[in-house]
Amino acid sequence: MGKLVVIEGLDGAGKRTLANGLTEALAAQGRTVAGHAFPRYGVSVHADLVRDGLYGRLGDLSESVYGMAVLYALDRRGAADEIRKDLEEHDVVLLDRYVASSAAYSAARLHQDEHGEFVRWVHELEIERFGLPVPDLQLLLRVPVEVAAERAAKREQADESRARDIYESDGSLQARCGVVYDGLANIGWLSPWQVVDGRSNVNFHSLLEPLFTP
Length: 214
Prior knowledge:
Blueprint lengths: L2 E7 L5 H14 L4 E5 L7 H10 L10 H25 L2 E5 L2 H11 L7 H13 L7 E6 L2 H14 L12 H17 L5 E5 L6 H5 L6
EC number: 2.7.4.9
Keywords: ATP-binding, Kinase, Nucleotide biosynthesis, Nucleotide-binding, Transferase
GO molecular function: ATP binding; dTMP kinase activity
């Protein structure tokens, strides 16, 4: 059975770059990797509804923290069987965002922390009720909010299709989300976490070592 590894972090933290580096490092070790990114835009109707909500195209549903979280959760539930299959066939399944994203962003929207009611609700819905696979390791790619915002802005300028949504454009929300992410990592929510400094060179092999150490 393969290992389920999740990359979490603020918008613009560099999660895609980290995922690419980890994939290359694993391949160099002779290990097979399957990857998924959430939300699964263009693949899942729930993900496409999420996108509509993030750009204000779902009326007042966009304002509902729980309503948006259910759409995110249904997108992940729709991918659960594929993730399980990949875990049977590959050494590592690497996810760009997962359950902790909803926990962090939605708790931040409600001005709650990692011990709040919303984080408990996400666990009950996605892990207990939906039975989503639990990660073996979660990597928090930590960067200052200002750095993440600058990177997101540059990405937007370079690619019109990646215009910032209402969450990405809210600096206060991003700052609160970063605090919740730190809290989730500190308590080891769902599984062990490692914090990665997104401003320095990453030793990919050292990040992976705990996964394959007996």
